[in-house]
Amino acid sequence: xxxxxxxxxxxxxxxxxxxxxxxxxxxxxxxxxxxxxxxxxxxxxxxxxxxxxxxxxxxxxxxxxxxxxx
Length: 70
Hints:
Helix content is 69%, strand content 0%. The protein contains three helices and no strands. InterPro entries: DUF8015.
């Protein structure tokens, strides 16, 4: 990214799918953990649900849609 501002879509122009998956992993973990902690008592269920959500993104990013070699 050169630092020039060409419009609102300029930030996403330099991001690949793999970059978006890497961004989505901690966001999904935090979101599922937050919802799970509101609905369930204790720590095991929210952590398990958040781990499954993040793990699904990891499997998608590595095996279903692997990053392209440069």
